[in-house]
Specification:
By secondary structure, this protein is an alpha/beta fold. 51% of the residues lie in helices and 8% in strands.
Amino acid sequence: MTTLPWQHSHWTHLHSYIQQQRIPQALLITGGKGVGKMELAKQFAGALLCEQPNADSHACGHCHSCLLLKAQTHPDFMLLQPDEGKTTIAIDQIRSLITKLNLKPQFERYRVVILNPADKLNNASANAFLKCLEEPNERTVIVLISERQSKLPATIRSRCQKLAIAMPDKTTVLSWLKTQSVKDDTAVLLGLAQGAPLLALSYAKDGTLARRNECFKQWLEVAKRQTHPILIAEQWLKLPETPLLFWLTSWVVDLIKCAYQNHADSLYNPDLHTQLQSLTQSISLTGLYRLYDLLLLSRARLETPINKQSLFEEILIQWSELNRSR
């Protein structure tokens, strides 16, 4: 597995652990969504399990351990994440892990456990998991991955070495995206992904830009009173809420920027600059700020059992009212 361009310094850090034979018993890798935390964790796991690692500690890719890992059948590698349809890592999963860790590793190298995302441990499973950290097992390395490390109990964080992956610079990411055969506008994709390279790449592969464009068209139709907000709210229920709310928020932020005559390059959606600029001619800034506040509140409400259709209806009705004079 090749190190991602923005992770060379992180790999150097992990390589030094291996070279100095100071492998941490618990490593917490943090960073935003789409920066490659899991990719780095898997690289580290591969290096620890490999029978013939390279001089830079990367796994060789062809020994017996590497082939088992590639086939997802390595007995000394465990990936722990919420079960399908669940939102948390349950205590039964941790109990099963503890039982397995009480046995010796089957190979002569290390045994690696990855928890992703570690912040999905609930109170009971987090308390049980502490046993793994307080009483480390033979040749066992636990790698925790988290976007929101503040949600992890301090008792867990304090027992881990930490490695933070910052959002890489735009130039590096755009250059990398061009090597990935991305056909869409890379700058626009990166804006939608809020600078996260792997998220931008996944957007390129799953047609996210086309979906955003369709939603923006519907957003304009509501503004022009060509369709009813409730009808659009029903259609938006089929879409993932988190990216949709980000698109809505980014359009409002861009409208505010356009009202202050900001250049297209400063927008989240530079490709929509002309249409956004036109909208600002008849919308009050006060109304835009109120809508922005509602969008921030709506993003927080997603964490609660709210009626999502009502949430989108409220946003779209307020947006329609904001454009009443059009």
